[in-house]
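> forwarded from #structure-qc
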């Protein structure tokens, strides 16, 4: 499935505009893609295609103190051990769960679209990165099969990477791009 700019931006905007998002894509320049994630967190690289993401914290005064805000400036090793690989189905579910500050799928009922229409938007977002992309998250909701997430359980954890009480997200890694879809729960 190929995707164009208008469809991708519309899907990102529709799914995440009511969350507290940081959604951005940057170039993949390193074998160790965590270095590319850190560049995204620091807002140090533009989207290689010029496509628009979302940055809820863009105008926050804290950004003058740290361009990474609300992310904390951690070394790559710190970030790497807090991310685990998940499969594409779990990545799709996670994109939908990121529309909610509690990282659940229960928020889908607030949308006018059907669940299948929302899933099509998530697939549109993932399509940008191609079929060979890998998916990584700081969310720990292990499913019955390794590499999956279980959104039916109430017991879950995460490894925060920001100054907020909770943050959770998805990193999509292709040969040429790294996408970051993050939500913050500033409780």
């Amino acid at each position: 499935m190929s995707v164009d700019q208008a469809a991708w931006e519309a899907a990102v905007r529709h799914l995440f505009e009511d969350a507290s998002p940081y959604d951005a894509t940057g170039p993949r320049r390193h074998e160790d893609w965590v270095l590319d994630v850190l560049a995204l967190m620091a807002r140090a690289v533009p989207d290689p295609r010029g496509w628009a993401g979302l940055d809820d914290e863009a105008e926050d005064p804290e950004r003058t103190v740290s361009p990474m805000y609300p992310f904390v400036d951690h070394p790559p090793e710190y970030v790497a051990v807090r991310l685990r690989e998940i499969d594409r189905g779990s990545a799709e579910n996670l994109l939908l769960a990121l529309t909610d500050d509690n990282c659940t799928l229960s928020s889908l009922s607030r949308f006018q679209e059907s669940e299948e229409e929302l899933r099509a938007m998530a697939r549109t977002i993932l399509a940008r990165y191609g079929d060979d992309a890998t998916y990584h998250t700081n969310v720990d909701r292990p499913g019955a099969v390794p590499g999956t997430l279980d959104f039916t359980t109430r017991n879950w954890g995460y490894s925060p990477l920001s100054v907020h009480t909770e943050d959770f997200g998805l990193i999509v890694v292709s040969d040429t791009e790294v996408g970051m879809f993050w939500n913050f729960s500033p409780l």
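QC bot note: Helices lie at 5-16, 34-41, 76-80, 88-97, 115-127. The radius of gyration is 15 Å.
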